[in-house]
Amino acid sequence: MANKTVNPINFGTIAGSEPAGAINKQEGFTGVTIVKNTTVEFTGSNHQHAAVIVGEENAAGTITLSDGNSINIAHLTLGTTYMLSPSKIVESGNKTVYVLKR
Q1: Which residues share a beta bridge with 85?
Q2: Measured between alpha carbons, how far is 61 from 26 in angstroms, rounded to an integer?
Q3: Is residue 82 a contact partner of residue 49, using CB atoms and an 8 Å limit?
Q4: Cβ pair 97, 59 in contact under 8 A
Q5: Is residue 7 part of a domain?
Q6: pLDDT (tens digit, 0 to 9) for every residue of the chain, 102 residues total?
Q7: Domain limits at 74?
Q8: Tally of domains within the chain
Q9: Contact 91, 36 (CB under 8 A)
């Protein structure tokens, strides 16, 4: 069976709400950063990211939040938009994680 993937612009569910198409327009997102098999720090001009979507099954790694707490990426649901304030994301499973910017 092929791995499932998600396009954050056309598909997704905002955690705690109804399914949302065109998430970027509905929630006021202005851009997307793709994190795949790398580490991205969201500081300086890169700090206004406010949501995360796991775009492929079996994504792995850690999301460090601006308050210092962390979330295991493997515990997030594929295609769900999580309203988070990441300071750093480490994706180690060579799978796509989308980080939406306000």
Answers
A1: none
A2: 28
A3: no
A4: yes
A5: no
A6: 455 555 554 444 444 443 444 444 555 788 889 999 999 999 877 777 889 999 999 999 999 999 999 999 999 999 998 999 999 999 999 999 999 988
A7: 13-101
A8: 1
A9: yes
What's the burial of 27, exposed, middle or buried (CB within 10 Å: 0-12/13-18/19+)? middle
Report the SS3 class of residue 17.
coil
Angle at 20 between CA 18 and CA 24, to 5 degrees: 140
Q: Which two tokens stand for residue 95?
A: 């799978």
Structure tokens, 102 = 């306000």
**Residue 48: strand, helix, or coil:** coil
In a domain, 60, yes or no: yes
The answer to the question of residue 77 being in a domain is: yes
SS3 state of residue 23? helix
**100: nearest Cα among 42, 39, 21:** 42
Residue 79 structure tokens = 């295609």
Show the beta-strand stretches assigned E in 1-102: 13-14, 31-35, 38-41, 49-54, 61-65, 70-72, 80-82, 86-91, 97-101
